[in-house]
């Protein structure tokens, strides 16, 4: 059997997706980064340092928790949560940031830049920059700044400069454009810490490797707790880093059903969504070929999701490939469905999930009741919902008005 | 000989550099943009770069970002940009025209359809910012096979090790981006440009055009003494941004173009 885990090829391609579609100024840097990452991967010292920070700074391994009351509530599959929301800074994002910070240190870079949507990657980046004594500049759309005030304040506390991006709709894609513009201007001292499995090669593969700790732990934990592999995995997808982190170690286990959940916003038919696979077509943006929300002229369409972290018109190229070959099933969940799942999880498990992760919960709640009791389902609880209080309060207020 | 080869050969005979002008198609609207395009050769532009608007121009500074937004608000699309080239070619055969932009609109249009339509419209060359030589198969190879030049950007970070890869397969001319940064940002020192020209000359016989941060006739003249061409974009686009009407936009661009041409033409006198 050919492996689904061997990609990308030497050109950074997963099938026809991925690649290195960037301006010439950045090409030498990207090659340097790829080369240095390959060396670091094989360097026991690097791996040892990474393991140390994962354990003592991030707090890994994160638990694999049996969600007993939700399992009862659904009345079908046995539901487990991979508790990434318990990580330092409250989401899976830190897994990647620790890895890239160690790489930046190895490459002698003193200045870190990053884009952020919900602010979780911004906070994680600011956190590692503080820990390693690096200058930190975060690009964030003005729309996202408005809806994620608390995270903006956290980044500032951690010593980062937050640069508001007004271009476009002031969301994640615009922040990424601006970060790329900064990088092209400050090539010599700057390390660009991309927060998801997108961008030019080697980012999709490198970020995946740093996030794959999620799936590796899950595998060990479920074997220890249940004596066998899970029957299904469910994770939400914006760029797709938490999902690929959980999925990748299981891709070659053909009996493990894998489900990625995109944000359908107001519904895919309305055009106001962030579901690149279910509502987009292949194109080239931000350094890689992947599925994109775009019009007939190839102009990028703004994404919509209640969750700022999923509000992106593209998706990581490895997901595009896994979709294309059919190894992973990609579905979508609307804003309203995600909110309902958010409330259910709060009430029944005493866990306030991020709105991003609530998309995975909503999909799991649809499936679990139809499945037998011996079906083991793992949901990636990728982040905690503290950052979403404003958004949820606002939404509940709107509902009361209309009631 | 292609239009680009002919044009650069003529200029070499006249011992002067080319003035290469960049404007975005459809900025501030289709008609004014076409009037600018048609007026540029008479105003002294030797080679024309025409921007294909894109929502996410990642390598461009604020001036060209706004030009893209204005053009897209006026519903400019790739089909209209090609139509504009057709209309330009009705009464202008000598001046080479190069389309410049990002890959996604071409990818969506369809590469072979795009090449066929561009060729038919009278496009001479392409500059696609996010297609490095690693992706030659995507567009560069088929475009060149159809007789459309593919112009490479080289930058201060393109070192000697990488230059042959970048220049291999480049045709028409070589565009040296003289500062690591976005369009319209600061300009390079004369020493830097001199060094870069010397270095590039070791690797290629193609005409060398220098761009990024060149705004005035004086500055253009200085560069024209060193290189085969001087590229001006953001400064021309600022004339459109600051204009109160379409007429003013057309006049502003063409007047600045004429002044720049005078600078370039007098440079080696």
From TrEMBL, chain A:
Gene Ontology terms for molecular function: tryptophan synthase activity
Functional pathway: Amino-acid biosynthesis; L-tryptophan biosynthesis; L-tryptophan from chorismate: step 5/5
Cofactor dependency: pyridoxal 5'-phosphate
Residues with N6-(pyridoxal phosphate)lysine modification: 93
InterPro entries, per the entry: Trp_synth_b_CS, Trp_synth_beta, Trp_synth_beta/beta-like, TrpB-like_PALP, TrpB-like_PALP_sf
Keyword hit for tRNA-binding: no
This protein's GO CC annotations: cytoplasm
Enzyme type, top EC level: lyase
EC number: 4.2.1.20
Function statement: The beta subunit is responsible for the synthesis of L-tryptophan from indole and L-serine.
Stated name of the protein: Tryptophan synthase beta chain
Organism, scientific name: Pseudomonas xionganensis
UniProtKB/TrEMBL annotation, chain B:
InterPro entries, alphabetized: Aldolase_TIM, RibuloseP-bd_barrel, Trp_synthase_alpha_AS, Trp_synthase_suA
Known role: The alpha subunit is responsible for the aldol cleavage of indoleglycerol phosphate to indole and glyceraldehyde 3-phosphate.
Record-given protein name: Tryptophan synthase alpha chain
Pathway: Amino-acid biosynthesis; L-tryptophan biosynthesis; L-tryptophan from chorismate: step 5/5
Catalytically driven reaction(s): (1S,2R)-1-C-(indol-3-yl)glycerol 3-phosphate + L-serine = D-glyceraldehyde 3-phosphate + L-tryptophan + H2O
Domain of life according to the entry: Bacteria
EC number, UniProt record: 4.2.1.20
Keyword Nucleus listed: no
Pfam families: Trp_syntA (PF00290)
Family: Belongs to the TrpA family.
Subunit annotation: Tetramer of two alpha and two beta chains.
């Amino acid at each position: 059997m050919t492996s689904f885990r061997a990609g990308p090829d030497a050109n950074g391609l997963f099938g026809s997706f991925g690649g290195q579609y960037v301006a010439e100024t950045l090409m030498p840097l990207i090659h340097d980064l790829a080369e240095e990452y390959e060396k670091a991967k094989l360097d026991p010292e690097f791996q040892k340092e990474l393991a140390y920070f994962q354990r003592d700074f991030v707090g890994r391994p994160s638990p694999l928790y049996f969600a007993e009351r939700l399992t009862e509530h659904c009345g079908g599959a046995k539901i487990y949560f991979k508790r990434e929301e318990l990580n330092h800074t409250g989401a899976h994002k830190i897994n990647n940031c620790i890895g890239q910070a160690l790489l930046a240190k190895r490459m002698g870079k003193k200045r870190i830049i990053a884009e952020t949507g919900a602010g979780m990657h911004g906070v994680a980046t600011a956190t590692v920059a503080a820990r390693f004594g690096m200058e930190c500049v975060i690009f964030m759309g003005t729309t996202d700044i408005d809806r994620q005030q608390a995270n903006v304040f956290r980044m500032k506390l951690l010593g980062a400069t937050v640069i508001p991006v007004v271009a476009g709709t002031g969301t994640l894609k615009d922040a990424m454009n601006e970060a790329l513009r900064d990088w092209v201007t400050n090539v010599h001292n700057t390390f660009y810490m991309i927060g998801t499995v997108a961008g030019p090669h080697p980012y999709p593969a490198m970020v995946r490797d740093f996030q794959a700790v999620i799936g590796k732990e899950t595998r060990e934990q479920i074997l220890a707790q249940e004596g066998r592999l899970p029957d299904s995995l469910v994770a939400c997808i914006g760029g797709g880093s938490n999902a690929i982190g959980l999925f990748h170690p299981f891709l070659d286990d053909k009996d493990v059903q894998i489900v990625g959940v995109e944000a359908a916003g107001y519904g895919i038919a309305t055009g106001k969504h962030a579901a690149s696979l279910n509502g987009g077509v292949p194109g080239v943006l931000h350094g890689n070929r992947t599925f994109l929300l775009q019009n007939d002229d190839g102009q990028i369409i703004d994404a919509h999701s209640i969750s700022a972290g999923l509000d992106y018109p593209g998706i990581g190229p490895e997901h595009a490939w896994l979709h294309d070959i059919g190894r992973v099933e990609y579905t979508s969940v609307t804003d309203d469905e995600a909110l309902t799942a958010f409330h259910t999880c709060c009430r029944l498990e005493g866990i306030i999930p991020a709105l991003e992760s609530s998309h995975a919960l909503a999909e799991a709640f649809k499936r679990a009741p139809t499945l037998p009791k011996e079906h083991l389902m793992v949901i990636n609880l990728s982040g905690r919902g503290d950052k979403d209080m404003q958004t949820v309060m606002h939404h509940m207020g709107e509902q009361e008005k209309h009631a | 000989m292609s239009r680009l080869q002919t044009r650069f050969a003529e200029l070499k005979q006249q011992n002067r550099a080319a003035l290469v002008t960049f404007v975005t198609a459809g900025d501030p609207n289709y008609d004014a943009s076409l009037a600018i395009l048609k007026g540029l050769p008479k105003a002294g532009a030797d080679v024309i770069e025409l921007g294909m608007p894109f929502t996410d121009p990642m390598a461009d500074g604020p001036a060209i970002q706004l030009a893209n937004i204005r053009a897209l608000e006026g519903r400019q699309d790739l089909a209209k940009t090609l139509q504009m080239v057709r209309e330009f070619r009705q009464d202008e055969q000598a001046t080479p025209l190069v389309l410049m932009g990002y890959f996604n609109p071409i990818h969506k249009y369809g590469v072979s359809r795009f090449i066929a339509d561009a060729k038919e419209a009278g496009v001479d060359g392409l500059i696609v910012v996010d297609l490095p030589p690693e992706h030659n198969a995507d567009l560069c190879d088929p475009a060149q096979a159809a007789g459309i030049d593919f112009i490479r950007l080289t930058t201060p970070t393109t070192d000697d090790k990488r230059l042959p890869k970048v220049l291999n397969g480049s045709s028409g001319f070589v565009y040296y981006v003289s500062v690591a940064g976005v369009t319209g940002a600061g300009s390079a020192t004369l020493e830097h440009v001199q060094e870069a020209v010397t270095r590039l000359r070791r690797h290629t016989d193609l005409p060398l055009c220098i761009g990024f941060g060149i705004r005035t006739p004086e500055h253009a003249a200085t560069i024209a003494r060193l290189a085969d061409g001087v590229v001006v974009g953001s400064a021309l686009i600022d004339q459109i941004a600051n204009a109160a009407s379409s007429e003013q936009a057309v006049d502003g661009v063409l007047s600045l173009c004429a002044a720049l041409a005078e600078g370039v033409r007098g440079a080696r006198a």
